[in-house]
């Protein structure tokens, strides 16, 4: 008997058909051909979990033992290039506009015996990708998601023209794969389609909820604070590591969204956002100084510089 599974890889999506009596090794070889990759990890299920493809597992496991019928297998490339020579680099800064205390980033949720919490992402121009990818448990999410977004855009030219992107698709997709390029609404919409999940983005300043991918079964929640994205999570105890956070919920679980909005309201009162209409911004590459998002966009178009920071005015 044959089974079908869906494959989601950097080079696109595909359906695989394989005999359930086939070995795991045969499945892995089929995935290599479909994904054009030779070294990768595999994840499946909800929440995502690793599929053991070690040599011993491949030689002793049959496909039917894995219960993969109808599952989606996510292919995560493993970089085998030799590591570059060690250099000292400054660790990404945590984003803390106006300053905020750690105990102000959580709300007790007694009805569910835990807390709704804000997980602050590094201020490294990849915060949106890290916030979303971390919610799915992806390894090295920024590199993977940037590549997947670029490939999706090029595979759907009818939906992502120059008029929609504001730039030639080839240039846009080259730019979005650069680690210093910010992601936004276009990327969130695409990631919702790729991973078949609703992304609810709460704007701290306005408390508006932008929902990308409505009518999907599951949801993740992120927080937008003007020039930065963070992740919303649930934990049973504030001392627990983030690895045990709950970051995905049923899309009809409106209590989660209500609790996240309650936390966003607290953060709004603490001015945990950057007003992009008039904030003073500095280019971290050339020290140019401007005001507001419009100036920043103009400077980026003229120079291709995209590393900005808000200047604190005393």
Can you characterise this structure?
This protein has 314 residues and is α+β, with helices and mostly antiparallel strands. It is built from ten helices and 17 strands. Strands 7, 8, 10, 11, 12, 13 and 14 form a seven-stranded mixed β-sheet that branches. α5 packs antiparallel against α7 and α5 crosses α8. It is globular. About 4% of the residues have low confidence.
What attributes characterize this protein structure?
cytoplasm, ubl conjugation pathway, seven-stranded mixed β-sheet, alpha+beta, 10 helices, 314 residues, five-stranded mixed β-sheet, 31% helix
Coarse morphology: globular
Strand content: 25-35%
In N-to-C order, the SSE pattern is EEHEEHHEEEEEHHHHHEEEEEHEEHE
What structural category do the secondary elements indicate? alpha+beta
Strand element count: 17
User: Could you report the average pLDDT, rounded to the nearest whole number?
Assistant: 84
Helical content band = 25-40%
Number of helices: 10
Weakly predicted, low-confidence segments: 86-99
Rounded Rg = 21 Å
Biggest beta-sheet profile: 7 strands, mixed
Quick structural overview:
With about 325 residues, this protein is an alpha+beta fold.
Task: Describe the protein's topology.
Layout: E1 2-9, E2 12-19, H1 24-35, E3 40-44, E4 49-51, H2 55-60, H3 63-66, E5 72-77, E6 93-94, E7 106-109, E8 114-119, E9 122-123, H4 127-135, H5 141-155, H6 162-165, H7 169-176, H8 185-195, E10 198-203, E11 209-212, E12 218-224, E13 229-235, E14 249-250, H9 254-269, E15 280-283, E16 289-291, H10 292-303, E17 308-310
Parallel strand pairs: 1-5, 10-12
Antiparallel strand pairs: 1-2, 3-4, 3-5, 6-9, 7-8, 8-13, 10-11, 12-13, 12-14, 15-16, 15-17
Helix pairs in contact: 4-5, 5-7, 5-8
């Amino acid at each position: 008997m044959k089974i079908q599974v869906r494959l989601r890889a950097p080079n696109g999506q595909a359906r695989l058909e394989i005999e359930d009596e086939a070995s795991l090794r045969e499945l892995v070889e089929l995935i290599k051909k479909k994904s054009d990759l030779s070294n990768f990890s595999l994840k499946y299920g909800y929440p995502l979990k690793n599929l053991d493809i070690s040599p011993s597992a491949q030689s002793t496991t049959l496909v039917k033992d894995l219960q993969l019928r109808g599952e989606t297998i996510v292919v995560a490339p493993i970089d085998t290039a030799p590591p570059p020579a060690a250099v000292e680099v400054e660790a990404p800064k945590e984003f803390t506009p106006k300053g905020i205390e750690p105990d102000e980033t959580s709300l007790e949720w007694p009805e569910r015996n835990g807390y709704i919490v804000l997980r602050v992402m590094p201020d490294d121009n990849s915060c949106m990708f890290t916030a979303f990818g971390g919610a799915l448990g992806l390894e090295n999410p920024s590199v993977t998601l940037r590549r997947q977004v670029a490939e999706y855009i090029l595979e759907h030219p009818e939906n992502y023209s120059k008029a929609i992107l504001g730039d030639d698709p080839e240039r846009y997709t080259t730019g979005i794969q650069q680690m210093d390029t910010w992601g936004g609404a276009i990327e969130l919409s695409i990631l919702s389609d790729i991973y078949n999940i609703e992304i609810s983005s709460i704007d701290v300043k306005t408390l508006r909820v932008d929902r990308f991918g409505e009518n999907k079964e599951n949801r993740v929640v992120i927080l937008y604070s003007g020039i930065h994205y963070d992740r919303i999570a649930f934990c049973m105890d504030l001392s627990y590591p983030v690895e045990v956070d709950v970051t995905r919920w049923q899309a009809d679980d409106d209590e989660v969204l209500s609790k996240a909005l309650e936390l966003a309201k607290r953060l709004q009162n603490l001015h945990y956002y950057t007003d992009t209409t008039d904030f003073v911004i500095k280019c971290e590459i050339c020290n140019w100084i401007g005001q507001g998002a419009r100036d920043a966009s103009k400077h980026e178009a003229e120079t291709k510089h995209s590393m900005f920071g808000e200047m604190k005015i005393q």
